[in-house]
Amino acid sequence: MRERRATIRAVSASEIFAPGLLDGQAALVTGGGTGLGRAAARELIACGAQVVLAGRREEVLAATAARLGEAASIVTGDIREQEDAERIVATVLERHGRLDLLVNNAGGQYFTPAEAIATKGWQAVMRLNVGGTTRMAELAVERAMRPAGRGTIVNVTLSPHHGLAGMTHSSAARAAVESLTRAWAQRWAADGIAVVAVAAGHFQTDALDKYPEPVRASVARTVPLQRLGQPPEHAWLIALLASELGAAFSGSVVTLDGARDNWFGPWPPPTLADEAGEVPTEQRRPAATR
Ligand SMILES: CCCCCCCCC/C=C/C(=O)SCCNC(=O)CCNC(=O)[C@H](O)C(C)(C)COP(=O)(O)OP(=O)(O)OC[C@H]1O[C@@H](n2cnc3c(N)ncnc32)[C@H](O)[C@@H]1OP(=O)(O)O
Ligand SMILES: NC(=O)C1=CN([C@@H]2O[C@H](COP(=O)(O)OP(=O)(O)OC[C@H]3O[C@@H](n4cnc5c(N)ncnc54)[C@H](OP(=O)(O)O)[C@@H]3O)[C@@H](O)[C@H]2O)C=CC1
Predict the structure, then answer these.
(1) Within a domain: residue 209?
(2) How many Å lie between the centroid of ligand 1 and the Cα of residue 109?
(3) Could you list the residue range(s) of the whole structural domain that residue 105 is in?
(4) Distance from the CA of 247 to the center of ligand 2, in angstroms?
(5) CA-CA-CA-CA torsion for 251, 257, 260, 263, nearest 10 degrees?
(6) Which of 43, 93, 178, 230 is the most exposed place for a label (fewest CB within 10 A)?
(7) Is the pLDDT higher at 262 or at 254?
(8) Which stretches are tagged as biased composition: Basic and acidic residues (predicted)?
(9) CATH number reported for the structural domain that contains residue 203 in this entry
């Protein structure tokens, strides 16, 4: 069996963790087809886990799974919808009979001044980042982790510790996820479940292409390391938290932001505002790709 796996292995061994760190584990990564989710899935597989990638776009998930090999499989669904979320968790259990790790990675927002956020836009960001994250966590606990008496939930958030003046909806949503992480860690401790949040700074994924160019250009220069985070660095932290050490972090928010946070300074940002004080906003994704 070992030999067979070696011949069909699509993901090379972890660069930093011992082989077999996560052997036998089943993981669910929401938003696993792209960016940080894809990198996490790759590292979890490199450490021995079986990984189910969830998201709304089948072609994106399928392309990633093809690159990751047979330890990866996909399930489509929208985590904002209860039926979809239930089906996602049920699919993991049908395939693997267990769910050891939920990486609650699907999330996002758009960049715009607070006063320009429509009620519907505020609700859209809350439904995804707070509602979707909560729904997935509760389903994973009820259907898989509590019955098994073990499990780990990693909530991927973006670090809002200075407040996100250009994304106030996400600032509130991510702060809520941090608070929920602490509360869930207490609530589910007796069930053997660890809950941790990873508060990320700026990582070089395709998703950053959607932010206004002047914003992107200025960011790397303001990180002490003078560079953006790389997805494998984020993925290594996810794998570490999936290991036995994860339990010791339960209730913690681990900040991985190069000491930059996602925001600092006044509004409007002097480097972005034009003479009238206007700041570039974000274009919407074309409907077909949303
Ligand atoms: C280095 C660089 C550093 C850049 C600066 C700092 C970056 C910090 C680092 C963080 C990086 C990341 O998080 S990177 C990850 C980014 N990835 C994502 O954001 C992907 C997921 N995001 C999304 O799907 C969307 O942003 C989200 C709003 C959450 C959901 O969109 P949907 O269209 O599905 O939402 P719906 O429920 O249909 O509601 C749509 C309503 O939302 C509002 N709305 C949605 N997009 C809008 C937009 N662009 N401008 C205005 N309004 C918008 C409108 O009111 C819409 O109503 P109508 O007008 O009536 O339709
Ligand atoms: N890149 C960065 O610098 C940072 C990113 N983050 C956070 O990390 C996470 C991943 O970011 P990143 O990889 O860069 O960005 P992406 O936009 O590539 O990732 C978002 C993923 O979530 C999926 N998704 C979005 N909405 C839903 C939904 N309603 N149901 C199911 N899946 C959904 C998307 O797939 P699909 O559209 O097919 O559903 C996509 O795969 C996000 O939560 C992001 O906010 C935090 C800090 C920094």
Answers:
(1) yes
(2) 4
(3) 22-289
(4) 25
(5) -70
(6) 230
(7) 254
(8) 281-290
(9) 3.40.50.720
